[in-house]
């Protein structure tokens, strides 16, 4: 129900946008490739901005979900697309930081074959448990995990994803272990907790906020620099002294690596304009996110830093996806 509500809200925002004006330089429709399943944060965000972006760019914008291989199928499709800026990749950029270490060989080179355009939003993680779990807060979760080593089923959005890696780090910091259960994306992991199939999960606030505020699961903590206004009683990871305090979903847009800088700059400006629209800003804020449209250079710098730090976690725990 919550997923349908989110997608309906995104569609309503799109339909409310003014009619598309075809004037600004692209000679064919634009595509946003989302490399994971419908209902996740990237998918929600892509559908929220599609029509407003089309209005600004002067072309229709179509969202396509191309899933599989930990996000590599969608990313490779963009890496091998025409270098004209009309095929965009929208994803949680941790995928691009971790996959070079999770796979022995990628069909594309992140540095050479993909050009950063801009980050769009940052949303902290909400760590939440199923309602039936006898845990009321963050301290209670740690105590329960220590008293029941290996019994907690931690649902994640896939082996090697950031939700998996952060949960591994948390278990280590708590001095215990959890059973990590991969799902095909964040949306199925959230549904698993909401139904009682799994004990806990974490996901970007843009995706998980409705579940936590709607009573379908119990939030216990949030990552990021501050508490969430819609969930003010949940402490931050930093307050609890947990690692990965600034983990979260960083959603960004990339295009084929040979795309001319002028085209990248045009897309960057168009996306920044779209994200500043009051309806978009309000919806992102309602879902616990914040705008991050610093542009291509800042995006590339952060991607390189994340690649170094997350690569270390993967190497230290010997996590692979193609063994």
From TrEMBL:
User: Gene3D superfamilies in the record, alphabetically?
Assistant: Bordetella uptake gene, domain 1 (3.40.190.150), Periplasmic binding protein-like II (3.40.190.10)
Signal sequence range? 1-23
Q: Does the keyword Phosphoprotein apply?
A: no
Entry keyword Signal: yes
Entry-linked InterPro entries: BUG, Bug_dom1
Alphabetically ordered keywords of this record? Signal
Q: What is this protein called?
A: Tripartite tricarboxylate transporter substrate binding protein
């Amino acid at each position: 129900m919550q997923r349908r509500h989110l997608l309906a809200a995104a569609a309503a925002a799109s339909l409310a946008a003014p009619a598309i004006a075809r004037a600004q330089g692209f000679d064919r429709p634009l595509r946003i490739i989302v490399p994971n399943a419908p209902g996740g944060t990237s998918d929600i965000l892509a559908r929220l901005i599609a029509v407003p972006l089309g209005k600004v760019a002067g072309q229709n914008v179509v969202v396509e979900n191309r899933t599989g291989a930990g996000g590599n199928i969608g990313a490779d499709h963009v890496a091998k697309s025409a270098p004209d800026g009309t095929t965009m990749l929208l994803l949680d950029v941790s995928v691009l930081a971790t996959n070079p270490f999770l796979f022995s060989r990628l069909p594309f080179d992140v540095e050479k074959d993909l050009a950063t355009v801009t980050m769009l939003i940052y949303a902290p993680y909400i760590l939440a448990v199923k309602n039936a779990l006898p845990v009321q807060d963050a301290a209670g979760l740690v105590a329960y995990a220590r008293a029941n080593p290996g019994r907690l089923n931690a649902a994640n959005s896939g082996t090697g994803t950031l939700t998996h890696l952060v949960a591994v780090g948390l278990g280590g910091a708590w001095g215990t272990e959890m059973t990590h259960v991969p799902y095909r994306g964040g949306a199925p992991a959230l549904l698993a907790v909401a139904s009682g199939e799994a004990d806990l999960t974490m996901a970007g606030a843009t995706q998980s906020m409705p579940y936590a505020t709607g009573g379908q699961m119990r939030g216990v903590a949030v990552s990021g620099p501050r508490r969430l206004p819609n969930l003010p009683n949940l402490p931050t990871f930093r307050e609890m002294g947990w690692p990965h305090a600034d983990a979260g979903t960083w959603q960004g847009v990339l295009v084929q690596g040979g795309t001319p800088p002028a085209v990248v700059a045009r897309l960057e400006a168009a996306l920044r304009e779209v994200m500043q629209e009051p309806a978009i800003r309000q919806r992102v804020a309602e879902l616990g996110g914040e705008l991050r449209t610093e542009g291509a250079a800042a995006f590339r710098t952060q991607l390189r830093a994340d690649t170094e730090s997350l690569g270390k976690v993967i190497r230290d725990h010997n996590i692979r996806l193609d063994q």
